Amino acid sequence: VSDLSAHTESEDTCNDLVASGRDRKPNALVQVAVIDPHKQHLVSHACTEIVEANKDPLFLTGVTFPSEYPASPETLVKLTVYDAKDKSQESRSTLPIVNHLCFFCLGLQSTFLGSATFSVGDLLRAKDERLTLSLRSSDGVCAAGAVVVSRLKMGEMEEVDVDHITTDIPSHKVKAMVQYTFLPCLCLPLSVFKNPVCKVYRFQTVESKWMLVREQMEECTLSFSIPKQLLSLYIQEDMSRVQDLRELGELSPHWDNLRKEVMTRYGGIINSYQETLAELDKITGRSFKPSCCKAQKSLEFIPINLHTQRMRVTCPRKTDAFYDIVTVGAPAAHFQGFKCGGLQRLLSRYEAEKKSTAYQCIYYSPEHTAKAQEVLSTVSLLQPLITSLADQLLQAAQEHSSPGLRDALKNLSDKTEQLVHTLKDELVKSALLALHAARPGYVSKNQKQTPVQGGQHQGHIHQGSDQNQSPVQGLPDSIPHHKEYDEEEWDRVWANVAKCLNCVIAMVDKLQEEDNSKQEPLPEQQQLADVITSHNPGDWREQLHPPVTRLKECVMEVVEKAKRAMTFVLLQEAACSIPQGFFLQQRRDVVFSQALAALACGFVMRLYAGMQDKGFLRQLHLVGLVAQFESLLSTYSEEIGMLEDMEVGISDLQRVVFQITEAKTDDLSDLQPLVCGRRDHFTVEVPLPRLVFQTLPEEIRGGKPLRVFPVLFNVGINEQQTIAERFGDISLQERINQRNFEMLEAYYKSLSEKQPDVISLPCFQTQTDIKELLETLGQNVVTKKKKNVEILWIAGTICRRLNGIRFTSCKSAKDRTSMSVTLEQCALLRDEHQLSKDFFIRALDCMRREGCRIENVQKNIRCRKYAFNMLQLMAFPKCYRPPEGTYGKVDS
Fold first, then answer.
1. Which residues form the signal peptide (predicted)?
2. Are strands 318-327 and 805-809 parallel, antiparallel or unpaired?
3. Statement: residue 854 has pLDDT above 60
4. Structural domain contains residue 333
5. Rounded Cα distance, 673 and 670, in Å
C-alpha cells in the first residue's frame, strides 16, 4: 500500500473480439475510469489506442496514475472495452456519454462490449499480484470474457513473451490485461518542474521480448521566473545607463539635446518593462504560456509552450535508459510582428542605415560599442573588488600575517593588472578625446575662430596640443574657452595605477625582509627580550596605508574617466539609434528572454540527469555543453521572420554562463535558478541542496563558470517550405545550417582534445564514430536536397552522443514539434533498444494518438487534434504525418 505514493501504470490486451456487425472486425479500445468514493460517479482517466480491424488486438498504450493522484486501497477502477467504429465521423457531438462522462475525445462512435471493476486493495492482496475478473455486458448479466489485472514494477519487468500475454480464451470472448506499475518519481527538482503528464507503453523487440516505455512531460517554472528576473535586470541596467548619462557633466547644446532625447527613450523602455513586470507579478500558479497567447503583449517575454519530456525505457536484462528533450515555441517577437522581417534582417539593415545617417554623432561600429560595454562591465566589477582586496591587505598587515599578506598581495596584483590591461585599449583614449571635444566652448587649434558644438564624425575631432600652453587667443571674452586637451594625460593616469601597485609591492617586500631578518636563531633569553620590545603590530599597517590609499585613489580616478568615456561612446551609439535602435533592443530583449528560459530549463534538467556521471561533470567544467536547437520553421512568409528572430536569440545565448552554487537551505524557494549580470554577459546560478552540492567536482564547487555552446539547425517541412523551395529563397536556412555545423565541429574539436583520458562520452548501440557523423552532417548541409530532414536527425544524434541538451521547436511547439519528438523517440527505441520493425509504425502512431504530445495539444487549445489538414500533410515528409483521426484544422 505504501507504493501508492508512486506512479501507477497499466497496459491492456484483448482476444477474440466480436464486432457488432458480422462483416467487419472490431476497432478495439479499453477505457479506464476511477469511481469517485465521495460522489459515487465515474471520473474518466485515460484509454488505450485503437487497434483497428483485429479480432485479437494487442494494446501498446498503458494507463498511468501519477503520484499526486488520490489513490488508496479502497480506490475503485472500472475497465470498459469498446468497439470504435464509423471512423469518418469526426464531429464531437457523436461522443458517447456514460454516466454523464465524455470518455473518448477523437469524435468516434463506439459500441459497448463489456466492463469490469476492481479495487486497488484487491490487486495488492492478490496472489502473484494478479487479478482475473469477468467482463460483464451492459445489463450486468451476460459474461463477456475475462480481464486480467497485474502489478508490475518498472525496472523489474520480467521477460514476457507474446504467448504468455495472449493466452487462450473461449471463442468470441474478451480478454484485457491491465498492468499496474508503481514507479518512483523522476529525480527532477520540484522547485523547477511541475504538473507531470505520464504515459506508458509496451513494445515488442526483435527477439519477441517486451520493453516497457514511459513518457513524462512536465511544465517548467522557469518559463516565468527567468523572464521576470531578466526584466528586473533590464530595468536596473537602463536606469544605471540614465544615471551615467547624467554624470557625464556639462555638454555642448548639440550633445546635451541628444543626451536628453536618449534619456527620454530609455525612460520609455523602463516604464514599459516596469508595466510588463507588474502584469507578470499578478500571475500566480501558471507554469507555461499556451500557444494561443503567443501574441499577447503582457506575456511577450515568456517562452511559448515550454515543456520537458523524458522517455524511460526498461528492457529485459538491460539497465534502464533515459532520453530527455525540451520543447518550446520558436523564440520570436510575435506581438511586434514580422511585417518587416525578424532580428537578423532588421539588424543588418539598421547597421547599414546607421552609417549613412550618423551625421549628428560620431559613428562607432558594433564592435566598438560592444567593446565599450565590455570595458564598462569590467571596470564596474574590478573597482569594488580592488578596493576590497586592498582592505584585505591592510587587515593582513594589521594582523602581522606574512602568509595573509602574500595571498592578499597576489590577488590585488592580479586584479589591478587586469584593470590596467583593460584601460590600455585605444577606444578609451579616443573616446576621452571625443568627450573633451563635446564640452561647451571647445576650440581645436585648427578652429580657433569658431567654437565647435561637437564633432561631426571621428575625422572631425582634432587632437589638441599640450595642456600647459597658453589659453586660446583671439576670442571674445564672452565666448567660453579652455585649454587644449592633452591626449597623453590618459596614458599618465592609467600608468599611475601601475606605479602605485609597484609601490605597494615594494613596501610589502620591505616589510617581509625586515621580518625575516628578525627570525634568525637567537638565544632563548634574547628571543624573549625581542618579543617584549618588538614593534607594535600596527606598524605594518601604518607603513602600508599611504601607498595602498594612493592606489585606491588612482583606481577611482581612472575608473571614473573610463566610465565617462565609455558612456559617451554608448551615448553616440544610442543617438544614432533613435528610434529604430531602441525598438530593436526591445525586440532583442524579448527574444533573448524566451531563449534563456528554455536554455536554463534544459541545463537544469541535464544537470540533474548527469549528477552521478563523473565523465559528464568533467566535460561540463572542462569544455562545457553543446545545446542543440532543432527548428522546423519554413523560410516563407511570417515564419522566415520567426527564424530570423530565433537565429539571433540562440546566438545571443553565447553571452550566458552557468554557475553551480550551494543552496542556503533545502527549501524549494532556495532552489530556484537566479540570473545576474547585464545584457552583454549574464550568469545563471543554479543552487543545489548541500548534500548534492558536496558530491560535485571541486572545480564546479569552486564556482567555475560553465559554458554552453548553442547551435541551431533548421529544416522546414510544411507546405510553405514547398513554396519557398520552388519559388522563394532558402538561403537563410542554408546559411544557418552551414554556420552552426562549423560551430558544432569546433566544439567537437575542443572536446576531442580532452578525450579519452579525461572525458568519457555515453555509449550507444549505434557505434558510428562521431567524426564520421560530423562528416555526414557536413555533406548534408551543403547538399541541395528538398526538406532534408536527415540534417535534423544527424544533428540530434551527434548532440546525444556528445552529452548535449536537445531542444525542438516550431512556431508553437505543438504540432510539428509533436511529430518530431515522437519520431525521435521511436527511432531511439529502434536503434538503441531493438524495437521490432513491425512495431515501429504502430509505436509511432500510438505515441502520437495517446501520448504526451496529444495531451500537450489539449493543454494549449482545449482540443485533441493536431492543427493540420490533409492538403498540408501531403507536403510533409511521410514520417512526420500523424495517424488519421488525430488532426483537423483548428485555431491555434
1. none
2. parallel
3. yes
4. no
5. 8
Last residue of a domain, one of 167, 185, 203: 185
Residue 95 lies in a domain: yes
SS (H, E, C) 544-588: HHHHHHHHHHHHHHHHHHHHHHHHHHHHHHHHCCCCHHHHHHHHH
- Residue 86 scores a pLDDT above 80: no
Provide mean pLDDT across the span 730-751. 96
Q: How confident is the model at residue 356 (pLDDT cuts 50, 70, 90)?
A: low
Catalytic choice (47, 198, 315, 810)? 810
Nearest in space to 495 (alpha carbons), one of 537, 544, 557? 557
pTM score of the predicted model: 0.82
User: Is the C-alpha dihedral spanning 585, 587, 588, 589 positive or negative?
Assistant: positive
pLDDT at 153 over 70: no
Residue with C-alpha cell 522581417?
Answer: 341
Amino acid (1-letter code) at residue 126: A
Output the nine-digit C-alpha cell for 223: 518559463
Backbone dihedral angles phi then psi of residue 845, each to the nearest 5 degrees: -65, -35
> Is residue 12 a part of any domain in this protein?
yes
Q: Is the pLDDT of residue 842 over 70?
A: yes
Say whether pLDDT at 57 is over 80: no
Q: Closest Cα partner for 705 from 726, 729, 677?
A: 677
- Rg of the chain (C-alpha set): 34
CATH of residue 170? 2.60.40.150
In this prediction, residue 342 carries a pLDDT of: 96
Domain boundary among 121, 152, 185: 185
Q: Which of 558, 572, 597 is nearest to 682 (CA)?
A: 597
Number of domains in the chain: 2
Active site (annotated) includes residue 810:
yes
Residue 834 and residue 827: Cα distance in Å, rounded? 10
| Distance, C-alpha 160 to centroid of its chain | 40
Segments forming the whole domain that contains residue 500: 366-471+480-517+535-575
Supply the mean pLDDT for the chain. 80
For residue 327, the tally of other CB atoms under 10 A from its CB is: 28
Distance CA 673, CA 687 (A): 6
Residue with the bigger pLDDT between 512 and 163: it is: 512
- Does residue 828 lie in a domain region? no
Confidence of residue 746 (pLDDT cuts 50, 70, 90): very high
